[in-house]
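[retry 2/3] DUF3244 domain-containing protein: previous attempt timed out, resubmitting with same input.
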Amino acid sequence: MKHIIYTIVIFFAFTSFSFPDYEECSVTAFYRASDIPYGTKALDNYDNIVEIETLLIPDKEIKAGRYKVSVKRIDSNLYQVGGTDLYIETSMCLELAIYDDAILNVVDYMGYKMGTLIFLE
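[retry 2/3] DUF3244 domain-containing protein: success.
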């Protein structure tokens, strides 16, 4: 009888705790891509000249809401929404996304756009 009780207790201990099947990342900024003429150059933080292909302009027009999106990781903490010119900057997000499905929650906080990016698995 004790063996059965221990088995039941152990079973419920391991099955009642579940880890979420998603990763949630904080969104710190939104950008729109702007194509620029070939050969355009800029200076980086160290006054080195660099060629740029795409200019990312802060997007203040994105509407607050909840969106189902497909995202691709471009760089550390930078994701692009598939099929659009929208880029999302995150904070300490480690998801290696290649057009992964996600939920994008956009909130408007005192004129600043931010939110969360929830990767679905």
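[retry 2/3] DUF3244 domain-containing protein: The mean pLDDT is 85.
[retry 2/3] clearing retry counter.
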